[in-house]
Amino acid sequence: MSDCIFCKIVKGDIPSTNVFRDEQVTAFRDINPAAPTHILIVPNKHIDSVNVLISDDEPLMGHLFIVAKQLAAREKIDEDGYRLIVNTGVYAGQTVHHIHLHLLGGAPMKHPMG
Ligand code: AMP
What is the pTM of this model? Predict the structure, then answer.
Protein backbone atom coordinates (compact mmCIF):
# COMPACT_ATOMS: atom_id res chain seq x y z
CA MET A 1 0.00 0.00 0.00
CA SER A 2 1.80 3.11 -1.23
CA ASP A 3 0.15 5.51 1.27
CA CYS A 4 0.45 3.27 4.35
CA ILE A 5 2.80 4.73 6.98
CA PHE A 6 3.76 1.31 8.37
CA CYS A 7 4.51 -0.03 4.87
CA LYS A 8 6.83 2.96 4.48
CA ILE A 9 8.53 2.11 7.80
CA VAL A 10 8.90 -1.54 6.74
CA LYS A 11 10.50 -0.40 3.46
CA GLY A 12 12.75 2.07 5.25
CA ASP A 13 11.23 5.02 3.40
CA ILE A 14 10.53 6.91 6.62
CA PRO A 15 12.61 6.78 9.81
CA SER A 16 11.71 4.67 12.81
CA THR A 17 13.47 3.28 15.85
CA ASN A 18 13.61 -0.34 14.79
CA VAL A 19 14.20 -2.97 17.45
CA PHE A 20 13.71 -6.14 15.39
CA ARG A 21 13.31 -7.24 11.81
CA ASP A 22 13.12 -10.58 10.00
CA GLU A 23 11.56 -11.79 6.75
CA GLN A 24 8.05 -11.69 8.22
CA VAL A 25 7.81 -8.81 10.70
CA THR A 26 9.29 -5.47 11.71
CA ALA A 27 9.19 -4.04 15.25
CA PHE A 28 9.82 -0.41 16.14
CA ARG A 29 9.21 1.99 19.03
CA ASP A 30 5.91 3.84 19.06
CA ILE A 31 6.39 7.53 18.21
CA ASN A 32 3.95 8.50 20.99
CA PRO A 33 4.63 5.97 23.76
CA ALA A 34 1.85 5.15 26.20
CA ALA A 35 4.21 3.24 28.54
CA PRO A 36 7.97 3.20 29.27
CA THR A 37 8.25 0.36 26.75
CA HIS A 38 5.89 0.74 23.79
CA ILE A 39 6.82 -1.27 20.73
CA LEU A 40 4.74 -1.94 17.62
CA ILE A 41 5.18 -5.28 15.85
CA VAL A 42 3.85 -5.29 12.30
CA PRO A 43 3.82 -7.81 9.47
CA ASN A 44 6.07 -6.78 6.57
CA LYS A 45 3.18 -7.41 4.19
CA HIS A 46 0.21 -5.07 4.28
CA ILE A 47 -2.89 -6.35 6.10
CA ASP A 48 -5.51 -3.72 6.97
CA SER A 49 -6.82 -5.20 10.22
CA VAL A 50 -7.92 -8.37 12.01
CA ASN A 51 -11.16 -8.11 10.04
CA VAL A 52 -9.46 -9.16 6.80
CA LEU A 53 -7.24 -11.95 8.14
CA ILE A 54 -7.43 -15.22 6.25
CA SER A 55 -6.42 -18.68 7.43
CA ASP A 56 -3.13 -18.41 5.48
CA ASP A 57 -2.17 -15.58 7.87
CA GLU A 58 -2.29 -17.86 10.90
CA PRO A 59 1.48 -18.62 11.07
CA LEU A 60 2.28 -14.94 10.54
CA MET A 61 -0.02 -13.88 13.39
CA GLY A 62 1.51 -16.53 15.63
CA HIS A 63 4.94 -15.19 14.72
CA LEU A 64 3.90 -11.69 15.83
CA PHE A 65 3.22 -13.08 19.29
CA ILE A 66 6.47 -15.04 19.44
CA VAL A 67 8.41 -11.89 18.51
CA ALA A 68 6.43 -9.94 21.14
CA LYS A 69 7.42 -12.49 23.76
CA GLN A 70 11.08 -12.32 22.76
CA LEU A 71 11.08 -8.51 22.79
CA ALA A 72 9.38 -8.46 26.20
CA ALA A 73 12.25 -10.58 27.53
CA ARG A 74 14.84 -8.41 25.80
CA GLU A 75 13.27 -5.27 27.27
CA LYS A 76 13.21 -6.98 30.70
CA ILE A 77 9.47 -6.41 31.14
CA ASP A 78 8.49 -10.07 30.96
CA GLU A 79 8.65 -10.83 34.68
CA ASP A 80 6.72 -7.78 35.86
CA GLY A 81 4.18 -8.16 33.07
CA TYR A 82 3.09 -6.42 29.93
CA ARG A 83 0.07 -5.86 27.72
CA LEU A 84 -0.44 -6.86 24.07
CA ILE A 85 -3.12 -4.94 22.17
CA VAL A 86 -4.49 -5.14 18.63
CA ASN A 87 -6.92 -2.29 18.01
CA THR A 88 -9.45 -3.08 15.30
CA GLY A 89 -11.78 -0.52 13.77
CA VAL A 90 -13.22 2.80 14.85
CA TYR A 91 -14.58 1.88 18.28
CA ALA A 92 -11.20 0.45 19.30
CA GLY A 93 -9.42 3.58 18.06
CA GLN A 94 -7.42 1.99 15.26
CA THR A 95 -5.65 4.89 13.56
CA VAL A 96 -3.15 3.07 11.34
CA HIS A 97 -4.76 0.58 8.99
CA HIS A 98 -1.87 -1.87 8.85
CA ILE A 99 -2.36 -4.57 11.46
CA HIS A 100 -0.02 -4.10 14.45
CA LEU A 101 0.53 -5.58 17.87
CA HIS A 102 1.23 -3.04 20.65
CA LEU A 103 3.70 -4.30 23.28
CA LEU A 104 3.31 -2.13 26.40
CA GLY A 105 5.15 -2.46 29.68
CA GLY A 106 7.62 -1.05 32.15
CA ALA A 107 5.10 0.30 34.68
CA PRO A 108 1.87 -0.87 36.36
CA MET A 109 -1.19 -0.40 34.14
CA LYS A 110 -4.78 0.41 34.98
CA HIS A 111 -7.31 -2.37 34.71
CA PRO A 112 -9.91 -3.03 33.35
CA MET A 113 -9.52 -1.84 29.79
CA GLY A 114 -12.15 -0.03 27.75
P1 AMP B 1 -3.57 2.28 16.71
O2 AMP B 1 -4.31 3.39 17.42
O3 AMP B 1 -3.75 0.96 17.36
O4 AMP B 1 -3.86 2.27 15.22
O5 AMP B 1 -2.04 2.62 16.91
C6 AMP B 1 -1.24 3.29 15.99
C7 AMP B 1 0.02 3.65 16.70
O8 AMP B 1 0.98 4.02 15.74
C9 AMP B 1 -0.12 4.83 17.67
O10 AMP B 1 0.24 4.41 18.99
C11 AMP B 1 0.86 5.86 17.11
O12 AMP B 1 1.51 6.59 18.11
C13 AMP B 1 1.81 5.00 16.30
N14 AMP B 1 2.48 5.66 15.20
C15 AMP B 1 1.93 6.42 14.22
N16 AMP B 1 2.88 6.84 13.36
C17 AMP B 1 4.05 6.32 13.80
C18 AMP B 1 5.40 6.40 13.33
N19 AMP B 1 5.74 7.08 12.24
N20 AMP B 1 6.35 5.74 14.02
C21 AMP B 1 6.04 5.05 15.13
N22 AMP B 1 4.78 4.93 15.62
C23 AMP B 1 3.80 5.57 14.96
Answer: 0.97
